[in-house]
């Protein structure tokens, strides 16, 4: 297959708001050992993209400076020592960066087949959120059937994924969201109770239920001490982002006396091997649920690649429910 030497892309011209994203032309990347080259059809838009754009989440030194951590398309070239995907396969993949472009390279072990019944647009919305939720809620957080699980930002891409997966694996699911409409969406996805954080105190709601066994939080700030109060004895808090900031005063006596666990992670800096293990777990335990229609990506909106600025504005407005995608091809 003959490939073009250059490709359309969207780059970050300087740290700032959505308007610093600009269409550009870049060389088509060349896959290295263990990597595949994907011609993308769609790319997912995620909060870490906006953090990178704002100058708050620098890519690793070895990764593309282009934003974009997930996408779906066709494998068009293989680097040395690749096993698994073949040229012509349709895949969705977790990306180290570079997803806002026509072509992207990623380790072959981070690519998964497009689940049966899904199109490329839907598949592009799977990797970043499903890798994040699976690794933090089930691997790190240890959620099991019957436990009370609270996810903040229930109408976000992470939230809609976490609600569905926790529900299908038998947990009692609670979620916070910022409007009656968003709360209704959370309940429709499997939440037992959705809490409008503008009108109710999630701490009181969870304490009335006996406390949360596990909380997944991306808000941070003053939510941290409130999360501690909302946990049941021996409960776990997993922190994955800080929309309200990473610093807060916390009374750790409660953590000690009630035997609480506070942990957290970010996905991008983890080793290729760690991400490959998450991918293998998803393929075995979650991909069959997607193929059966029991768990599906929730779609919000689609924008052309060249209009990534509008996609970022949509995401940062917090008006969306579910995933935002860029149409690349």
Can you tag this structure with a few keywords?
alpha/beta; Quinone Oxidoreductase, Chain A, domain 1; Rossmann fold; seven-stranded mixed sheet; 11 helices; 15 strands; GroES-like_sf; oxidoreductase activity, acting on NAD(P)H; oxidoreductase
Structure report:
This is NADPH2:quinone reductase. GO terms for molecular function: NADPH binding; oxidoreductase activity, acting on NAD(P)H. Residues 16-326 form the Enoyl reductase (ER) domain. Keywords: NADP, Oxidoreductase. With 329 residues, this protein is an alpha/beta fold. The two termini are 17 Å apart. Helices cover 29% and strands 28% of the residues. The mean pLDDT is 97. It is built from 11 helices and 15 strands. Helix 3 crosses helix 4 and helix 3 packs across helix 9. The protein has 2 domains: 6-126 and 296-327, Medium-chain alcohol dehydrogenases, catalytic domain (Quinone Oxidoreductase, Chain A, domain 1, Alpha-Beta Complex), CATH 3.90.180.10; 130-264, NAD(P)-binding Rossmann-like Domain (Rossmann fold, 3-Layer(aba) Sandwich).
